[in-house]
Amino acid sequence: MRAFLFSGQGSQKAGMADPLIAMSCDAARIYEQAESFSKINIRSLQAEELTKTVNTQLAVSVYSAALWSALPESERRSFVLAGFSLGEYSALYAAGVISLDALVQLILWRSRFMQAVIDRSDALGMAAVIGLDAAAVERVLKEADASANPAEAVYAVNFNSPVQTVISGATAMIERLKPPLKAAGAGRIVTLRVAGAFHSPYFQEAADRLCEQAATLTFRSPSHTLYSNLTAAPLPADTNWPEYLKKTLVSPVYFTDELRRLQADGVTGMVEVGPGKTLIGFADQTLTGMPAQHASALLV
């Protein structure tokens, strides 16, 4: 059994759609429909435009949907689905929970509500702590009382692999945390090129607005098992999807646990669906003996 893993934002680049569209009529149709609905020329977004979350999220989600549509049916047998952060939306589309138009609409709402929060503050950000296990990262944050003041709090939010945890919050506090994290054994602390403190309580207003709008859309039962960033477990068929999407916007991504659960549940191979190979790297760091490849290798 395979697990298809849908990428989050971060690996996008200008022109990434062109080779896929040239190879697949199905992918081209996905772009045509998404661009017609959104009134945005997604495939022509340039590097500077892709630095804005309103464009990044749409570009990554539509690329992932297009790549999924281009896969031969013979490669989509006996599988489960998962997504990393933003990638959960494309996974919902792949599972038939939402239509392509609903995917695009959700991403437009999500990105615009998040951008509204970002525009009010330039003092929030994220950093990847590399070479230190998650428990040690959380211990340093607890000892520093990093979340005591909500106005300048920092949280551990992305548990990417056993050797990489992302922290999110006030940039001033992130800077103050770097020395104790280094002292605890962190090999590197890399400031991420993002404009907000994603997956943290800073985005509660955006999450509330997203939930309210998502409730106007139609959600169906998934055609295949979907795994959750929040619990690492399969999502129930009767999940309240607007409430779930609300929670994911302000909650950590427990991807390491999710990868381990997928393996424990019988997955024998993983395929990343999206513009990069980040999740393949996380799988290689987390699991032993798990073949992982990019979906482009399955195209004919």
How would you briefly describe this protein structure?
This protein is 43% helix and 15% strand.
Strand content: 5-15%
Provide the CATH architecture of the largest domain. Answer: 3-Layer(aba) Sandwich
Return the average pLDDT rounded to an integer: 95
- pLDDT < 50 stretches: none
Question: How many domains make up the coordinates?
Answer: 2
Percent helix, as a range, is: 40-55%
CATH class term of the largest domain: Alpha Beta
CATH topology name of the largest domain: Malonyl-Coenzyme A Acyl Carrier Protein, domain 2
Largest sheet: 4 strands, parallel
Tally the beta strands: 8
Determine Rg (CA atoms, Å). Answer: 18 Å
Tally of separate helices: 11
CATH superfamily of the largest domain: Malonyl-Coenzyme A Acyl Carrier Protein, domain 2
- Strand order of the main beta sheet, please? 2-1-7-8
| Helix and strand composition category | alpha/beta
Query: Could you give the order of the helices and strands?
Result: EHHHEHHEHEEHEHHHEHE
Distance between the termini: 21 Å
General form: globular
